[in-house]
Structures are given as C-alpha cells and as structure tokens.
C-alpha cells in the first residue's frame, strides 16, 4: 500500500474518541464489558472507542467508575480536603466531590483533563472531580486558579486597555487582518491535500480549499510567514468542521523540521483534540444564535 492510499484509508476511519486510566485488571475488564469494540493503541497510549456518541458514553462510564472507587479512597480525599482545603471562589464542595466553575480558559481545561475521573457536567456547566482525585486536583490547583483569574472579563479588559496604542496591539491587528484573508503560502512543489484538515504553522488546523497559483511576495508577508520564499504560491483555506476533525486520523509522530518549515503537516492527536473542542464551541454558539433568531410558533 502506498503512502497516499494509506492516508486515504485513514481519512475514512469511523469517528472515535480516546480514554486512558490507570491500569487495573478489574477496571479493564469492566471497561471491555461496556466497550467491546474498544482497542488499545500503543501509538496513542490510550483506548480508542468508535462511534459518534463515544464521548458521551465514555463520560458516563468515567462517572460510574468514580462512584465505584473504594470507600477508603473517597474517605482519604475527604480527610485530605478537611486537613488542607482549597479555598477558592472557583471551587465548591458537593456530596460526591468538587465542582469547579471558571471563566473559559484553555489552560484550565487542559489541567482538569489530566485529573483522573474529572468530567464536564454540560447541564450545570461545571467540571466535577470526585473526592478520590483530590490529591491530583490540589497538585494542579495553582495553575488552574491562576489561569481562571487571567480569564476573568475584568482582567481581560485591563490587558486590552494596557495594549491600546502599543506595538503589541498593532501587531495583533495585522495578524487578524492576515488571518481574515484566508490565504496560506505553500511550496509550489509540495502542496497540501485539498479538502482535508491539515495543521499549519500560521493558522492551526485548516482545510485547503484551492490553490490559486498566485506567487507569494516573501518581503510583503515576512512578518506572518517568515519561511515563505518566491517558490511559494497562495492557497485558500477555511476552518475545519467538527465532523471533518472527528474523521481525521492523527499523525504517528510530531512534525519534523521540514514539515515546520514547509508550513503544513498531518495533525497530531493533541492538535486534533484542541481543534475538536474549539469546533464544538463554534457549533454550539452557531446553534444558539440560530435558535435565538428562529421565529417562535
């Protein structure tokens, strides 16, 4: 099988999600009972679960596993909290553990995802962490709270005010202007595959829509595309949809120096996870806007 055909095969893989947890024979047995089609990936170091509803089913299973934690582990977490409590407006205690509610921050989400059995409660818009995971929560709390404070609207406003009239603000405006042009310089002899998500140095994961053939002027775009030369041409791009991201198979390894200089590569699992989360948020906002403008019957 050629590299091209192998990539095409990967591109039509069914949607799937990953889950990892501390190895325990009984836990694995319970997991396989609930997810008989799950497979262990040595590359990802995680279990892969196929299906469009895999994320919801995994979250339910994680919640049930948290409830199964042995009583002494729960009690140990309760005792640890009583002895050295986390005092923060972002954390509340409830009957099964802790609820964390902060302004949106990618750092907060990344930190919480590393805590065993932490789960997002979409109904109440809070993260929930069982007592048994208190040690992990406490270990990561400084980073969580610091990121949450930076994400507060007032703090964001202060930083925006401080940037007014500065070179930093001007640079940000130029960067936004370049992004709005929806163009990407690519080597004329090494073009990205059209219609499929690719990771890029400049704009994250995008889908190339067309190759215009127009030559790039390296001097004019050096600030935003320093690796572009007179052998590059412009490609048009758009944001990848959630469905496209779900169907994209991750790269087996991080991009090398050549891929970074080239400006595009097959996205890694971490890049896909971040892009999927962002795409879900975009789709939720779009659905909310559509619902608010839909005439009532």
Explained architecture:
46% of the residues lie in helices and 20% in strands. The chain is an alpha+beta fold and 297 residues long. Among the domains are: 88 residues, no CATH class; 117 residues, no CATH class. The strands form 3 sheets. A 5-stranded antiparallel β-sheet has the order 8-11-10-9-12. The chain has a 4-stranded antiparallel β-sheet with strand order 4-5-7-6, with helices on both faces. A 3-stranded antiparallel β-sheet has the order 1-3-2, with helices on one face. Helix 5 packs antiparallel against helix 6. The longest helix is centred in the C-terminal third of the chain and has 25 residues. It is globular and about 65 Å long. The N terminus is likely disordered.
What brief labels describe this structure?
297 residues; alpha+beta; 4-stranded antiparallel beta sheet; 12 helices; globular; disordered N terminus
Number of strands: 12
Helix content: 40-55%
SS-derived structural category: alpha+beta
Overall pLDDT score: 85
Lay out the secondary structure.
Blueprint: H1 3-11, E1 16-19, H2 25-34, E2 39-41, E3 46-50, H3 54-68, H4 71-83, E4 91-94, E5 97-100, H5 106-113, E6 119-121, E7 126-130, H6 134-150, H7 153-163, H8 167-180, E8 183-187, E9 197-200, E10 204-215, H9 218-221, E11 232-239, H10 242-246, H11 257-262, E12 264-265, H12 269-293
Antiparallel strand pairs: 1-3, 2-3, 4-5, 5-7, 6-7, 8-11, 9-10, 9-12, 10-11
Helix pairs in contact: 5-6
Concise overview:
The chain has 297 residues and is of the alpha+beta class. Helix content is 46%, strand content 20%. The strands form three sheets. It has a five-stranded antiparallel β-sheet. A four-stranded antiparallel β-sheet has the order 4-5-7-6, sandwiched between helices. Strands 1-3-2 form a three-stranded antiparallel β-sheet, covered by helices on one side.
């Amino acid at each position: 099988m050629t590299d091209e055909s192998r990539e095409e095969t990967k591109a039509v893989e069914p949607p799937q999600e990953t889950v990892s947890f501390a190895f325990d024979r009984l836990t694995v047995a319970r997991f396989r009972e609930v997810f008989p089609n799950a497979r262990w990936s040595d590359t990802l170091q995680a279990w892969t679960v196929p299906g469009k509803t895999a994320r919801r089913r995994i979250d339910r299973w994680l919640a049930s596993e948290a409830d199964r934690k042995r009583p002494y582990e729960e009690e140990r977490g309760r005792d640890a909290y009583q002895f050295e409590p986390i005092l923060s407006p972002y954390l509340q205690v409830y009957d099964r553990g802790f609820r964390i509610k902060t302004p949106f921050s990618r750092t907060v989400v990344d930190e919480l995802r590393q805590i065993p059995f932490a789960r997002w409660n979409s109904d109440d818009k809070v993260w929930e962490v069982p007592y048994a995971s208190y040690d992990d929560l406490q270990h990561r709390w400084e980073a969580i709270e610091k990121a949450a404070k930076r994400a507060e609207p007032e703090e964001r406003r202060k930083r925006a005010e401080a940037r007014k009239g500065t070179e930093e603000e001007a640079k940000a405006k130029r960067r936004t202007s370049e992004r709005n042009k929806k163009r990407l310089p690519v080597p004329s002899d090494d073009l990205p595959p059209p219609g499929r998500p690719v990771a890029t140095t400049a704009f994250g994961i995008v889908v190339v829509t067309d190759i215009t053939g127009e030559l790039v002027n390296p001097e004019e775009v050096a600030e935003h595309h320093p690796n572009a030369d007179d052998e590059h041409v412009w490609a048009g791009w758009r944001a990848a949809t959630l469905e496209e991201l779900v169907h994209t198979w991750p790269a087996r390894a991080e991009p090398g120096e050549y891929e970074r200089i080239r400006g595009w590569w097959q996205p890694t699992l971490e890049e896909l996870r971040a892009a999927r989360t962002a795409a879900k948020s975009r789709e939720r906002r779009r659905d909310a806007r559509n619902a608010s403008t839909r005439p009532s019957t």
